[in-house]
Design a protein that fits this description.
The chain is an alpha/beta fold. Strands 1, 2, 5, 6, 7, 8, 19 and 20 form an eight-stranded mixed β-sheet that branches. It has a five-stranded parallel β-sheet with strand order 9-18-10-11-14.
Length: 544
Amino acid sequence: MNQSNQNKNKEKEVDFDAVVVGAGFGGLYAVHKLSNELGLTVRAYDNGSDVGGTWYWNRYPGALSDTESYIYRYSFDKDLLKEWKWKANYLTQPEILEYLGHVADRFDLRRSYQFNTKVTRTVFNEETNYWEVTTDKGETVTAKFIVTGLGLLSATNVPNFKGRETFQGEQYHTARWPRAGVDLKGKRVGVIGTGSTGVQVIISIAPEVEHLTVFQRTPQYSVPVGKHPQCEAELAEIKDHYDEIWKQVKSSSVAFGFEESTVPAVSVSKEEQERVFEEAWNKGGGFRYMFGTFSDIATNPEANEAAAEFIRKKISQIVKDPETARKLTPTGLYAKRPLCDNGYYETFNRDNVSLVSVKENPIIEITPKGVRTTDGEHELDVLIYATGFDAVDGNYTKIDIRGRDGITMREKWADGPTGYLGMMNTNFPNLFMILGPNGPFTNLPPSIETQVEWISDTVKHMVENDVSTIEPKQEAEEEWVTICQTISDQTLFSKGESWIFGANIPGKKNSVMFYLGGLGNYRKALDELGFKGFIFNRVGASVE
């Protein structure tokens, strides 16, 4: 028997055709595609006790999607689109969790899952061409394919403040909020962090706590979210036009359901700029404000400053105390993931809310009684860390993932993540990443569907053609990283410090982690590339 036949026989001993990691939007859709549609044997894992992914863990007060309800969902099933209802134009965390639970029930996805289980190690066996997957329960299974839906924002980042273990009150990270909730009524609460999560938490808890102290590192540009109830007539109108809506979304740049502007801000008068910004401010939505007003806010410093200055003026008008307004007012580029809120700046007009700028008065240590900064000790009963995530690649480097020749993902990405098309890596055959490094920077469900459908089509091709392995060519991977870097360099995002480049993690090298060319162009790239740039069955047997 030749080596090829021996390997085929060994492959027949595999426990599962595929292992899927994660039970959020990505993992659930992958299980559906591979199990229900392709008929493969699938084992799925998640370290939560049920489906939900990021939304299972992020159950902090005020948790809200910043994508409008009608497109923060799957589009693959028209009946599901027609039947499901929502209350307002933005979804709260409980509503998203309910929706994903319904999807799991509708397509019988939980039967594939082993919950409360964390994948700790995956090793590619080059003799058998399958992956050996080990969990924290001590179990090891084998699979030909691995699909990871680990989530962009799920590896928590907790700053290592001196004395953190000495605090005698309650401490929570927003991404690991207790399922039973936390009673904050009448307590002195501190929140460290003012990113999207921090903003939502601050707004939500301010009315119920005795006193809220906000520890702000960087002032934020934020615009109103514009949340309002949606009536049956509005829902019916949306559902009647879903074909056109999803066509537009999937061919657009940020996939947020609005037409991106093609008009440069620098081409119109100051008065016209003000009119357009005011209209967007009143309508609501962070991405709409950045990408729906003018076409050059993310690329032209002059246009960017116009958008930023409009928000600064709003802050000065909203916040009554001049010193608080000064601390809240950003001065740099408007070049992070755009934020939106339900009354963030207004919250600082409350008598029970105070703001500490930790750039002006750094945190020295956490004490038994609270937080000590250079201007004194702030006594607290509860300390909340809204300090975000080790985004994109953080969850991958926390798992011991080993590809060909024993190379680890941590070693592979030592100088920055190198994901090809945001889904694969050289020397890691048959390992498919949903929302891996260098995928599109968009509303996530449409990007997730795009990638999972590509993965499913690829797996189907391999199964039908008796193909053992697929992985990118090194030159193709390098070219894609260069493309992502080149596009990033043409934007102002690369000039600001942001989690989308890993800048929020001390000691982490800033690197491009997204394809900023838009979902429409990303989908075109997938269609045009086909299987170019990939190697099937390893050495030399590439398909062009």
